[in-house]
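Q: Focus on the shape:
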Amino acid sequence: MQMPPFQSNLPRDKMAEAGGDDLGPLPEWDLTDLYPAMDSTELTGDLDRVTQMIADFARDYEGKLADLDGDGLAGAIGASEAIDLILGRIMSYAGLLYQQNTTDMARAKFMGDMQAQITQATQPMGPNSTSNALSHFVVITRFQGGNAWV
């Protein structure tokens, strides 16, 4: 049995079928809600702040999850979420900026630099860290209703 040809309803495909390739002005992301520029003080400040937050998290919680009461565990989860929000904002900005123009070498370098800095900063939250144990605990208790190792 032969499959019928794929039919697309996307405007770009309709234009290509009609022999046209002018899509008109394409939308551009306004990334200033994340950071004003690649070299902004807001971005460098967040990098410094999240690096310190990670060091504080490791100091405060490494090897101590099993001894935390409910309030202590809530504090650890809150601290981990705050770190994740900043890391997500930084990497969202770097990734979206790069995706706007993947041929721009400055953007490509910036993306690589951000990945390297975040990787370095998050070393204390590596695969055998308290952060991973905390994530495992949250997933097990929230979604499986079981006991998690801590």
